[in-house]
Task: structure prediction
Amino acid sequence: MKLRTAAGSELELDKKQIDDFKAQIRGGVVTPADAEYEEARSVWNAAIDRRPALIVRCLGTPDVIAAVKFARQHRASLSIRGGGHNIAGLAVCDGGVMLDMSRARGVWVDPAARVARAQPGCLLGDVDRETQLHGLAAPLGFVSNTGIAGLTLGGGFGYLTRRFGWTCDGVRSMDVVTADGRHLRASKDEHPDLYWALRGGGGNFGVVTSFEYELHAVGPEILGGAIAWPAEHAPRVLEQFRKIMSDAPPELTCVAALRKAPPAPWLSSSIHGKDMVAVFVCYTGPIDEGQRLLAPLKALGSTVGDIVQKRTYVSQQSLLDATQPKGRRYYWKSEYLRGHDPELLSAAAEHASRAVSPHSAILVFPLDGPLNRRAQTDSPVGNRDAKSLVNITASWEKAADDAANIEWARATWRDLRRFSTGGTYVNILTEEEGDDRIRAAYGANYDRLAAIKAEWDPDNVFHVNKNVRPKPSRG
Result:
């Protein structure tokens, strides 16, 4: 078997070397000769088509340690799969070793201490379902099929960010396998430099085998859902969105969405396939107060769908799932914003009307709150000046349409970038975005990350990621 090295060369391994490695892995190893290989290598974004030489299905930490040591010994490319939901397809490498954590999905909740410990293969929905049994939640993302590992290691934001900050802000500790095969815990008191780097520095520093999250009292019932209008009403809807979010309490998050209406049952059939503007709503305070705050939106009239109601927080967390199914082709661009500039919202609506695919959208996510009150250096994710984020999400079905859809996203980004803080979200960087964009994501924190990378992974074993370049070793 040929194994691709990190340097791009190929190394021939004999059958005994492969068999000896397989014998160490309790979860099993999948190769291109196995029937399950095609499914095992596939990820959410169908535009990603890479073929690892070995897929290591990890059931526990010993499997992870064995895989890391094997990859290091042979200088093989090593990718790490949690949920497989990353836009750049960082879960899978060509010709190397793919470490598949997707079967490690245990969640343990301590309601008295208000903490949860979760394994790295967990999806957001796994954690939400367990924590909501106790009326508790961690500030995770917007799509329940997203993996917690990639989300957390890149920062993470969702409906609760305006109350509690980035996802990584609430991580108390992480168990991690380092590049030299050690298994240790990183926290404020144990290996604090590594703990700092893992809270936003991506997969550069090790394989996290367990996350410990702080939990907050949320739900189980909240006020949530979505309201939609025909696109001609976008100016007044977006202005009302801007006004509501300008002084909204932290319990309220409204996400503006501009796209063609899908054939969803909650939308009037008269709008299907036509341009629309929608606002997705989540209010985690008293229901009556939430209804009062949202009354100006409802008063706009002319809606083609309104499902804002008392619902479970778990159902709210899956509200956007259908817009991002596995198997479509995706290309995204994002920028952090200083706020909801009326000119930005107007330009976003104009660009959305030019989308090539009916599945594409432009989304504006409010972020302001606790994350702004921490120092830029509190965690590497930084961007503590961000008030919101715009995400341009090209989504389509056929490879023949790649060029047109990617160019729509890029053209939209080139125009909307004038409203940026200068920062970007590392979890939404696409495959071709390199060092300049990684530096934009980390800002002044990049040099400290590079120094920690040089200490913990001087040989860059963990490089199939948005890579922070380790400083050269002395001598």
Remarks:
- The mean pLDDT is 95.
- The longest strand covers residues 221-230.
